[in-house]
Amino acid sequence: MQNVSWPHAFWILALVGALGCSTTTVKPNLKSCPDPSKALALRGHFTRPLIVGHRGAPGHGPEHTLRSYNLALDFGADFIEPDLVFSKDGVLVIRHENEISQTTNVTELFPQRKTVKTVDGQKMEGWFTEDFTVKELKTLRTKERLNFRSHEKDNLDSIITFEEYLQFVRQQEKLRHRQIGIIPEIKHSSYFHQLGFDPERAVVRLLKKYHFNNKTQPVIIQSFETSNLERLRKMTPVELMQLIDDSTAETMTSQEGLQKIAQYA
């Protein structure tokens, strides 16, 4: 495969088999690809690599907006990925982190809300989703977080909830006549449990509401934590993905570590 140019921050999951479609431009030639709905429905027996729009299509505009997710689908993404955190009133909202000063205009609208917190053992200063109601979060506008990327789409879109994301996916499936995979990442589960929230129960409740909570749906829940995935294994039949970072790689990718992961994810 030569001269392949993919959109920024897309994941290509080479699970089984080879890519059987023309991909010589940024937008794949979908006419020569296998039927996406059939490919996704095979779950675990994929006939081609899967393309995941990580945070949508960042690099082309602010991440984690419906605009970004829609563009990722235009580019041919099989899955689009939301990161999940909580609002003050217990609503799952989509931001890569619960600290939102880099991706929204929160510093301009709520300068007095700046605070210091310790999240997963790391002390940080900023503005956090769990200090704002969902109504307040909806007044914010998103922006590109990296200086070297285009900022022409800053301040155009609002923060979206996980429920709005699921509604969007169902709508797009009808419009595009294909199945769309969802791959939500639960962020800071232990931290939010300490605050009285229950991310796993909230995620499963919404998956059930929009009929995603079964094995026929292309759904993968991911997390860097382990206890929440072990709990989810008892709560939902959908696929679970154990994410691994540098601090846990040696232990978790050992034979013993992988055998343990295989029991739940």
CATH superfamily: Phosphatidylinositol (PI) phosphodiesterase
CATH architecture, please?
Answer: Alpha-Beta Barrel
Helical region count? 10
**What is the residue-averaged pLDDT?**
87
Our estimate of the beta-strand percent is 15-25%
- Trace the largest sheet across and list its strands: 1-2-3-8
User: How many beta-strand segments?
Assistant: 11
Structural class: alpha/beta
Instruction: Identify the CATH class.
Output: Alpha Beta
How would you describe what is shown here?
The chain is α/β, with parallel strands linked by helices and 265 residues long. It has a single domain (10-261), classed as TIM Barrel. It is 28% helix and 15% strand. The strands form 4 sheets. A 4-stranded mixed beta sheet has the order 1-2-3-8. A 3-stranded mixed beta sheet has the order 5-4-9. The radius of gyration is 19 Å and the shape is globular.
Short note summarizing the structure:
The protein is an alpha/beta fold. The protein has helices at 36-41, 66-74, 106-109, 134-137, 162-176, 189-194, 199-209, 227-233, 249-252, 255-261; strands at 10-13, 50-54, 79-81, 83-86, 92-94, 115-119, 122-126, 181-182, 185-186, 220-223, 239-242.
Element layout with pairings:
Layout: E1 10-13, H1 36-41, E2 50-54, H2 66-74, E3 79-81, E4 83-86, E5 92-94, H3 106-109, E6 115-119, E7 122-126, H4 134-137, H5 162-176, E8 181-182, E9 185-186, H6 189-194, H7 199-209, E10 220-223, H8 227-233, E11 239-242, H9 249-252, H10 255-261
